[in-house]
């Protein structure tokens, strides 16, 4: 009899592991706050990384994710399928199913996915699929295949999470606007924060948000978008100031369609790994009033991911 082969994965050279020992945030999250963008990686021995992956991460297990949730003061998570797992949703689904109802998932599926598989994912707690247009992360799929998936998920009440870089938006906007379900934009469409917040690029993104009232935005990843910092490390209470005007603008114009998440375990960061406690302390710089904080952290994610509790 053969025994299961032990898998061993070597991390991508230069890989930055998630930050152990994050601080306790000074900003007290409102009761019921949702970390609406985070991932699990493996562990690789139990949930092997996909052959088609573009990076090999460190492990980041569901237990570690849930420990961080409790440490930071979140009540729930939305776990987004990480590209290193391709369209094998096992690790994400296992994490969601072990959460006692405190997590929902966003899956990656391939065109041609069966109705049975979608229903299985739904029953496990998945409420959306992710379409990724970032070429360093995936082999971008043809639009008609994606359109087919979009048509299939409508009856389940799911949405599509879209990840793209700002310079690609002009070529993608018409496709997005033709999709028949709500859309959730990852990381504000990755603006170049060295450009003017009132300039044509970010205005193009805001125009996408204005074009339909069911397009949502994650005001996330200042640690990824920043160019001048300062970094959320060493007790810094005013981190990532260059990203604040962009996120604040979105929160102010679309208070009922914004989400926030840690992005733990922060795949592919090159410069530094943030202290997640200090990332939470960044929230009041972009959502300054108690009401907008409650919408961002509780009401909005609950409406999208746990509508039955509304
Ligand atoms: O910018 C990234 O590298 C990145 C990667 C992934 C993923 O690999 O799924 O997810 C993210 O939210 C961001």
Automatic annotation (TrEMBL):
Keywords assigned: Aromatic hydrocarbons catabolism, Hydrolase
Gene Ontology MF annotations: 2-pyrone-4,6-dicarboxylate lactonase activity
Pfam families associated with the record: Amidohydro_2 (PF04909)
Record carries keyword Cytoplasm: no
Signal sequence interval, chain numbering: none
Catalytic activity of the protein: 2-oxo-2H-pyran-4,6-dicarboxylate + H2O = (1E)-4-oxobut-1-ene-1,2,4-tricarboxylate + H(+)
InterPro entries: Amidohydro-rel, Aro_Compnd_Degr_Hydrolases, GLI/LigI, Metal_Hydrolase
First-tier enzyme category under EC: hydrolase
Residue intervals of the Amidohydrolase-related domain: 34-305
UniProt cross-references to PANTHER family, sorted A to Z: BARREL METAL-DEPENDENT HYDROLASE, PUTATIVE (AFU_ORTHOLOGUE AFUA_1G16240)-RELATED
Name of this protein: 2-pyrone-4,6-dicarboxylate lactonase
The organism of origin for this protein: Nostocoides australiense Ben110
């Amino acid at each position: 009899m053969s025994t299961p082969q032990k898998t061993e994965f070597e991390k991508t050279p230069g890989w930055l592991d998630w930050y152990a020992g994050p601080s306790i945030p000074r900003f007290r999250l409102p009761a019921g706050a949702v970390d609406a963008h985070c991932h699990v990686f493996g562990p690789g021995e139990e949930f092997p990384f996909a052959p088609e992956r573009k990076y090999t991460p460190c492990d980041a297990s569901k237990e570690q994710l849930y420990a961080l949730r409790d440490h930071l003061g979140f009540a729930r998570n939305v776990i987004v399928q990480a590209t290193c797992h391709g369209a094998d949703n096992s690790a994400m689904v296992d994490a969601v199913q072990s959460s006692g109802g405190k997590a929902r998932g966003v899956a990656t599926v391939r065109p041609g996915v069966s109705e049975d598989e979608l229903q299985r994912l739904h029953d496990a707690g998945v409420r959306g699929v992710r379409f990724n247009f970032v070429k360093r992360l995936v082999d971008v799929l043809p639009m008609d295949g994606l359109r087919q998936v979009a048509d299939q998920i409508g009856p389940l009440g799911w949405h599509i999470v879209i990840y793209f870089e700002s310079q690609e938006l002009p070529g993608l906007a018409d496709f997005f606007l033709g999709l028949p379900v709500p859309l959730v934009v990852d990381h504000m469409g990755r603006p170049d924060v060295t450009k003017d917040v009132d300039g044509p690029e970010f205005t193009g993104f805001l125009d996408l948000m204005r074009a339909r009232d069911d397009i949502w935005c994650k005001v996330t990843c200042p640690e990824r978008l920043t160019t001048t910092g300062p970094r959320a490390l060493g007790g810094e209470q005013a981190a990532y100031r260059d990203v604040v005007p962009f996120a604040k603008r979105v929160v102010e114009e679309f208070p009922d369609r914004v989400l926030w998440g840690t992005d733990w375990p922060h795949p592919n960061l090159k410069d530094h790994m943030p202290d997640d406690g200090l990332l939470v302390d960044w929230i009041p710089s972009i959502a300054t009033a108690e009401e907008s904080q409650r919408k961002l952290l509780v009401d909005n994610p609950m409406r999208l991911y746990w509508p039955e509790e509304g």
